[in-house]
Automatic annotation (TrEMBL):
It is an enzyme of class 1 (oxidoreductase). NCBIfam families: benzo_boxB. Its EC number is 1.14.13.208. The gene is boxB. It comes from the Bacteria. This is Benzoyl-CoA 2,3-epoxidase subunit BoxB. Transmembrane segments: none annotated. Keywords: Oxidoreductase.
Length: 478
């Protein structure tokens, strides 16, 4: 009998892992390093706990959401591709209508590898960013949701590593190892994308991250799901089923903070932020500043507004528009797209060739999707007669990537001097005092399933039909 550490039982999959000895050998070499990384950089102090987690064991509706208690190091990190689409053809670009690729074309090898590595790098990065959050959890329900997000980011890493090992030979194996060697926020070996090096050490940041940054992940996955490289398309299509839960955690998490603050404001007839803080709640202006930070960091993840790389990705069929089927012109050779640019210290609208604007088209859809979440939070405030509205800052605000990275703008998008921005910075972005106050609310974890932190309301329902006060995490020894 084989003693391999890699098997269909330990790694549920639909990629014929049992019949692919070469892939087994590659993963057998990689898996121990992954486990070491998880134990070193995964949720600190909770490795022996039994956690009520969802595990994907197949792509069928009754298999991809299997719930049971599991210790996180023993989680079954599956490799799944969405079902193949018969006779699928390339949906966009110069090769529109031709059969999709089952192998990597040599001329696109380096570019495809870089796309997969960049996506893959975000998965362990977010686990590293969030590794200490369990020690300040507002409830056992939230603790479980944090761990669910973490293990699924780990599974998404496996998904990208599967592609690297299966289709990119030695280069892919080396890239897979490097994914475990970089560290979020490390000065010498940081993660590839800026937002994934930002500290995420409190629960307001975590909920903003899962709302804004994981939503960027959704749109990147939607764009990659259109790829002419069919294994990448099928991998990302399945990942989207899990990404939805991460955004749910963010949207409802922020919503529950908003609900608690609004409830206390209405009950106590409070209008001033300092008075809200006296009640042990998170004031709305502070929430807006955190929103400004994570939204602007997430906007950067889409890349430059005018991009020859984006044009090339589209032309060659590597990365398309989200839900390409809804567009009429799948070649995008003739159209233009209006983009605001900075010229001579002022804003001017420029018509950009459509292919060069693909990042901005994706960003536009992201912005509209974010606004729907803010609309929900604003309806909560209105229901409690609170006169405050959350707003998305202008996309020129606090940018570090693209055509706005060299200018300073206020949240309305008005261009200002660097000195003016520095003077007003703490009005628009979290100050050290804000962070200190947020930390003061989150000094101790709540491990009693029947309790909830004062600064957040209880969710409307629990997980998988269980009550909110269910023992979602059974504390172990470490």
């Amino acid at each position: 009998m084989s003693t391999t550490a890699i098997s269909d039982e330990k790694i549920p999959n639909n990629v014929n892992l049992a019949g692919d000895r070469k892939l087994q050998r590659a993963l057998e070499a990689w898996q121990p390093n992954f486990v070491s990384w998880w134990k070193e950089m995964g949720p600190y102090g909770f490795q022996t706990d039994d956690v009520y987690l969802r595990t994907a064991i197949s792509v069928e509706s009754d298999g991809w959401a299997h719930f049971n208690y599991v210790k996180m190091p023993d989680y079954r990190w599956g490799i799944f591709l969405a079902p193949a689409v018969a006779d699928r053809t390339i949906g966009f670009g110069d090769n529109f209508g031709e059969p999709v690729w089952q192998q990597v074309p040599g001329e696109h090898r380096n570019t495809l590898r870089r796309l997969i590595v960049t996506q893959g790098d975000t998965e362990p990065a977010s686990v590293e960013q969030q590794r200490m959050l369990g020690h300040t959890c507002p409830s056992v329900y939230d603790l479980r949701n944090l761990f669910q997000v973490n293990v699924e980011e780990g599974r998404h890493l496996w998904a990208m590593v599967y592609l690297l090992h299966s289709y990119f030979g030695r280069d892919g194996r080396e890239e897979a190892e490097a994914l475990l060697m970089r560290r979020s926020g490390d000065r010498d070996t940081p993660r590839i994308l800026g937002a994934f090096n930002e500290p995420c050490t409190d629960w307001l940041s975590f909920f903003m991250f899962t709302f804004f940054t994981d939503r960027d992940g959704k749109f990147q996955l939607l764009a990659l799901a259109e790829s002419a490289f069919d294994p990448l398309s099928r991998t990302t299509r399945f990942m989207l089923t899990e990404e939805a839960h991460h955004m749910f955690v963010g949207e409802t998490g922020v919503g529950r903070i908003v609900e608690r603050t609004a409830e206390l404001m209405e009950k106590n007839k409070v209008t001033h932020p300092d008075d809200v803080r006296k009640l042990g709640a998170i004031d709305l202006p502070t929430m807006q500043r955190y929103l400004n930070l994570w939204y602007s960091l997430s906007l950067d993840l889409f890349g430059g507004e005018i991009s020859s790389n984006a044009a090339s990705f589209f032309a060659t069929g590597l990365k398309g528009r989200a839900k390409e089927d809804k567009y009429e012109d799948h070649r995008a050779l003739d159209g233009t797209y209006a983009i605001d640019v900075v010229k001579d210290g002022a804003i001017a609208t420029e018509q950009v060739p459509l292919r060069n604007a693909m990042n901005e088209i994706l960003r536009d859809e992201y912005v509209a999707d974010c606004q729907r979440g803010l609309d929900k939070w604003n309806r909560q405030l209105a229901a409690h007669n609170v006169e405050f509205k959350f707003e998305l800052p202008n996309r020129r605000f606090h940018r570090h990537i693209g055509i706005y990275s060299d200018i300073n703008a206020d949240p309305s998008g008005k261009l200002i001097s660097a000195a003016d921005f520095a003077q007003r910075r703490e009005d628009w972005l979290p100050s050290e005092k804000d962070k200190e106050y947020i930390r003061s609310l989150m000094q101790h974890p709540i491990f009693d399933p029947k309790q909830m932190a004062n600064w957040i309301s209880a969710p409307k329902q629990g997980i998988k039909g269980r009550p909110v006060d269910f023992e979602y995490v059974r504390r172990g020894e470490g």
